[in-house]
Amino acid sequence: MYTTTTPVRIDAPVRRLIDTVTPGGHARYLRVQPEPGATVNGCFSNVCAKAARDGGRRLCGWQLWEWPGVLVEAEFHAVWLSPAGEMVEITPKPHGEGTILFVPDERRAYRGEVVDNVRIALHEDQLVQHFIRVSRAIVQVMTRNGPPAAQAHIPAEQIAPLRRVQQFLGHAIDAQLREHDPCPCGSGLRYRQCHGHELELALA
Ligand SMILES: [Zn+2]
């Protein structure tokens, strides 16, 4: 569930995503060339280490993802700008993608903060909207106490219920469930009138 991958092309929703995060931005495909020692979730430190070793500098921007048929997503990210001015993706990918789609965003610097992903639904359905809102709520809880260093102090019971709802929605969306289908809880009601209704109240 919730398996995003590199968008195969820059279609209208991807273009809209680019214009949301960095208006007029120019996205390009970069080949993934993992640097020895680089970690999947450590793009900012990977690039700092690389620049300290080989020169060049860190270039911040957005890595673009797609959950096919469901949503497109922009993740705050950094690549290495070589001394020759070439953008190089040195961070390995969780699902082994060979290329990424990246749009540079020089207005943004990384200061160790948690930056939420920006997500755009590919169709109007309450399940996808709820998935996006729950995902945002998780980051809001995580960052409520300040910088990432404080995250260790967030009680697990504040995050775990949200993660369970996120998973529930992810599985339902993967199973092609729509808001007017029977709720997966087995109540016999439509999702919209059952758990969709409860979640609507909870998210409000
Ligand atoms: Zn239900």
Give the SSE layout:
Layout: H1 12-21, E1 28-31, H2 43-54, E2 57-67, E3 71-81, E4 87-88, E5 99-104, E6 118-121, H3 126-143, H4 156-174, H5 195-203
The protein binds zinc ion.
Zinc ion binds at residues 183, 185, 187, 194-195.
How would you portray this structure in words?
- InterPro entries: SEC_C_motif (IPR004027).
- This is SEC-C domain-containing protein.
- There is one protein chain.
- Helices cover 33% and strands 19% of the residues.
- The chain contains five helices and six strands, in the order H-E-H-E-E-E-E-E-H-H-H.
- Strands 1, 2, 3, 4, 5 and 6 form a six-stranded antiparallel β-sheet that branches.
- Helix 3 (126-143) packs antiparallel against helix 4 and helix 3 (126-143) packs parallel to helix 5.
- The two termini are 25 Å apart.
- The structure holds zinc ion (ZN).
- Zinc ion binds next to loops.
Short description:
It is built from five helices and six strands.
